[in-house]
Task: structure prediction
Amino acid sequence: MEKTIILKFTKQTWRKPIIYGLSKNFDLVFNILEAKVLPRQEAYAIMSLEGPDEEYYKGIEYLKECNVIVEEVPEQIQRDEDSCTHCGTCTAVCPTDALFVDGDEKWVRLDTEKCVACGNCVQVCTVQCISLFVI
Ligand code: SF4
Ligand code: SF4
Result:
């Protein structure tokens, strides 16, 4: 089994070698695709995780026992371009820079190729113009 997952760490857990434990304690291979520490010191890691099914689920349980929030990536986002006010709030919480401020006019753009559907922008959008939908 191989899946792309998002790990969400608290200020207290993100410095610990928790991800390393996936390969040390289980028959799993991980590849970190993106990692970022946000302004409030929470951290995100997006990674692929691969191994035998049983080991995969043990690894997920291990992460949860370490107080890491684990989410799979089954969704995509869509944005109502007409409603977006380009306030920029969402760019501060996007772990992959899929939402970014573009050019001198400061338009907020969305690069769907970089989006991992973590949902952070949905929660903070000031006019609720972003939504998640299942692929
Ligand atoms: S869901 Fe929003 S915050 Fe998360 S990666 Fe996609 S654009 Fe960025
Ligand atoms: S938070 Fe919402 S309104 Fe503000 S730039 Fe992002 S998508 Fe647009």
